C-alpha cells in the first residue's frame, strides 16, 4: 500500500490562505452540539460553495450550472480560444467517484468554470467577469448574441439576477430578455439572451462562496441600522423609548415657562458682562 499523501483536488484561487481545521472533541451529542459543529464548519470553511437566498448575495466567485438532461452543464470560458463553452459536468467523472452526483452537490473542478460577480453598491445589476485569462465580461447584444470578449463594462454587460422560491436563478439583460440555453445547428448547445419568458432553459443553479454570503448579510444589517446593544448609551435609550413623539421630550407649560425664564436670565447676565467690558475699554482709551 502506498504511503504517499493524496493531493487535494479542491479548487483554490491565487492568494487564498489555507486554514487549518480544528479538532473536535468526541462525545458531542444533541441538537445544540450539531448546531455548534455546523457553525464551526462554516467559520473554518469560508470558501464552501453554497446557494444564494437572494440576489444581493450573488457576488465574488460564482459557479453557474444548468440542470440539463442527461448531463448538467456549467458555463465555462475557454481563454485559449476566447469563447464561452457549455461544459458537460459528467466529463469530470473519475474512477474514484463512479456514482452520479446530484446537481446541487456539484462544485467547480477548474478555474475556467468560475465567474467573478461584481456590482456597484446599491445597484440591482451585476457584472459577470471571467475568472481566468485577462478578465472578460459576459455581455449580450440587442440580437441576443452572448459573448465574453470585452474588457470594459457597459449596459450590455449588466445582468439582473432573479432568484425564485425554489432557489434557481434567472439572468435578465438590459433589453429585459433572459439568458437561456439554446440548441443550435448540429445539436450543440449555446447561450442566448433573447428569451421573453423564464422556463426550464432560462433557470440556473448558482453557487457562491459562503464568506461572500456572510458579507452580504453583514451589509444588510448595517443598512437596517442593527448595532451591538453594548454600544448604545443607556440614558439616550431610556429617553428615546420612554418619551413621546418618537424620542422628543414633551414637557408641561409650567416647565416651558421656567426654561424660558432661565434662558432670559442667562442672556441678561451675558448682556451685562458685555456692557461692562465695553465701558472698561472706553475708559482705558481716554486714560
From TrEMBL:
MF terms in GO: actin filament binding
Q: Its GO CC terms?
A: catalytic step 2 spliceosome; nucleolus
The reply to whether Amino-acid biosynthesis figures as a keyword in the UniProt entry is no
Q: Which family does it belong to?
A: Belongs to the FRG1 family.
Q: Where is the composition biased (Basic residues)?
A: 8-23
- What are the UniProt keywords, alphabetically? Nucleus
Residues of the region (Disordered) are: 1-55
- Gene of this entry: Frg1
- Extract the coiled-coil ranges from the record: none
InterPro entries with a match to the protein in the record = Actin-crosslinking, FRG1
The subcellular localization recorded is:
Nucleus, Nucleolus
Pfam families (alphabetical): FRG1
Source organism of the structure: Grifola frondosa
> What is this protein called in UniProt?
Protein FRG1
